[in-house]
Write the structure tokens for this entry.
Amino acid sequence: MITDIKTQIMNAKEGIITDEMRFVAEAEGVAPEFVRDGVKDGSIVILKNNQRKNSIPVGVGAGLSVKINANIGTSNERSGLEEELKKVKIIEDTGADVLMDLSTGKGIDEVRAQIIASTKLPIGTVPMYQAGKEALDEFKNIAKLSKEKLFSDIEKQCKDGVDFITVHCGVTKFVIDQLEKQKRVTGIVSRGGAMLACWIKATGKENPLYEYYDELLDIVKKYDVVLSLGDGLRPGCGADAGDRAQVAETIVLGELVKRAKAKGVQAMVEGPGHVPLNLIPSMIQTIKQLTDNAPLYVLGPLVTDIAPGYDHITSAIGGTLAALNGADFLCYVTPAEHLGLPGVEEVREGIIASKIAAHAADVARGNKKAIERDKKMSVARKDLDWKLQKELSLDPSKFDGISFEEEKPCTMCGDYCSMKIFREYF
């Protein structure tokens, strides 16, 4: 039994700067006091389970660089552990900050243990996936899932070392009622949200994650696991963006953020989804306001619904604008979105697209490290320093196999100018 362990928030409220806060501050190029104060007011979370000894603490939130998550996970239809471990390596090599294990295949506990052991990156999960799948396997009926089983899986995953968990606490009876009254084009597209909505309708009971929220807080507090309050009613198409059900859930999440912070538990909020470009600024700003400026973790947003095979691009467009307006954490979208499960190469493409979006937003937000990196690249290009350009590139592999001729000074200006067309005449 874990006792007498203070969480990051509890330490921050006492004015203590933890080792994790110092690590994040150094990585971000900010003062440790800035990170401490952000953790204290809930605008920053640190992804670091206190049971994982060798993992890298990652800070997410206001005043920090925009972070990127990459999803992986086994399934009965296609992917097994071997392929997912290859994806972990690609995720590390390509530079994502965090990964989520969304496995629904065989041996979920073993898969999670292997993934945790294979990386130092923070790891997130959705415990409802395991609890719901196992209930369906055993009973063929999601309504047979018990509150005890769900909470047992949550504690098991926290104990295993998971750094954050997505929990769809805002899918309440009232919110589902709002959804049914208004109708939607695409209904519920969140897998965890759909499971809980079906459970609520079948049993007539309240969502146990909401009804027993204090018990949930007690579990994650022991491990200093960050609650990622899931958007079970996120819009699954542009036409549903900003509707009554989405807003009703967001209001509930705002309430739950405050309750978590009061109990010493770190919390962030998940957001849309599919959102037309013109609606993104106001939507992101409204979510941040309704949820007490908690770190915001967005899927995309995807700005159009007609680009299957290219949704890593539609996501990058929306993610840049979302991050510029306050989103803190981008969940990658791969070219396989809406088509199937991503392979290893599609994972890499999704991460690169999200890194472009995050970096572009960081520059626009005035992040000094991001601005300096762009400037260094500009100087390296002028100097024809190909080695440095490769080092600074978001995807250094694009330089592999390219042969660069030695450059000579321009006889006209005496510099290494790039206007080769003119050199032939001087």
Summary: The first strand starts at residue 44 and ends at 47. The chain has a mean pLDDT of 94. DSSP finds 18 helices and ten strands in the chain. The CA atoms of residues 128 and 192 lie 6 Å apart.
